[in-house]
UniProtKB/TrEMBL annotation:
Keyword vocabulary terms for this entry: Membrane, Signal, Transmembrane, Transmembrane helix
The keyword Amino-acid biosynthesis is annotated on this UniProt entry: no
Lineage: Eukaryota, Metazoa, Chordata, Craniata, Vertebrata
Protein name in the entry: DOMON domain-containing protein FRRS1L-like isoform X1
Species of provenance: Huso huso
Residue ranges of the region described as Disordered: 26-54
Signal peptide residues on this chain, from the entry's feature table: 1-25
The keyword Magnesium belongs to this UniProt entry's keyword annotation: no
Length: 267
């Protein structure tokens, strides 16, 4: 039987070893503790975090290079002039023009059945000569550019100072169509008129050669029958020459008389 002193020493040694094991822990236990308590992430956090960078950035939707002209706004929020077949619109009329005020500018939309150019002139009378003209010209590269002209007699001279801005243009279905803005008020100059005043509008279109305009398609292009104010939104239709004959009151009366004569017969 060991002496009491030796038993006491053995008991102290066993107690010391048990306490030491309780204080220390293995690296595996420590990592488990950190996983269970120190990192309070939701399941799948790492996968979500990594996958968030794998998706491509969204691309912008395609933009229509030229917004179609709305004829339903004619006479309501903009003024319009149509020349051609009765019931035609901006895509079927021989010539179409619209105007509307936007702040300090006037926005114009022009379209014509041509592969060359379409224009509008601002005149103090109904005759060509001494007129401020804005034209949209289709060049050999397929682009439609806005040009500024001044009528010298029957000749349109291009002017370097161009008041047009926010220009858009397209050549499609054998039509030249464009949209641009121009200031209402401009500094006093012979070749540029103030649009807050009323003017006769000259409508013209025709072929172009290498981006240069040539003579208009018809000998007597249509002209507004009264001075136009940008503050009054009108919706005006003018029949083209092919439809003017039957719209004339005299011709209608002649047709009625001839029909009556044929029905009644000769005596």
């Amino acid at each position: 039987m060991p002496p009491p002193m030796l038993l006491q020493q053995l008991l102290l040694l066993l107690l010391f070893l048990s306490c030491w094991r309780g204080v220390t822990s293995s690296p595996t236990d420590d990592s488990v503790a950190r996983t269970d308590h120190g990192d309070q992430r939701e399941p799948g956090f790492e996968e979500q975090h990594q996958d968030s960078y794998s998706y491509p950035f969204p691309t912008a939707p395609p933009v229509d290079p030229f917004a179609r002209i709305k004829v339903s706004d004619c006479g309501v929020t903009k003024g319009c002039f149509r020349y051609g077949k009765p019931g035609c619109d901006a895509e079927t009329c021989d010539y179409f023009l619209s105007y509307r005020r936007i702040g300090v500018d006037v926005e114009f939309e022009l379209s014509a059945d041509t592969d060359g150019w379409v224009a509008v002139g601002f005149s103090s009378d109904k005759k060509m000569g001494g007129d401020d003209v804005m034209g949209c010209v289709h060049d050999d590269n397929g682009r439609v550019r806005i040009h500024h002209f001044y009528n010298v007699g029957q000749w349109a001279k291009e002017i370097k100072r161009n008041p047009a801005r926010d220009e858009e243009g397209i050549f499609e279905n054998n039509r030249v169509t464009c949209r641009f803005k121009r200031p209402v008020y401009v500094s006093r100059e012979e070749t540029i008129v103030d649009l807050h005043l009323s003017w006769y509008y000259l409508f013209a279109w025709g072929p172009a050669i290498q981006g240069s305009i040539t003579r208009h398609d018809i000998d007597a292009p249509p002209v507004s029958d009264h001075m136009i104010s940008i503050y009054n939104y009108e919706d005006v239709f003018m029949p083209s020459a092919a439809y003017q004959t039957f719209s004339s009151p005299f011709c209608l009366l002649l047709i009625v008389a001839l029909t009556f004569y044929l029905l009644m017969g000769t005596p």
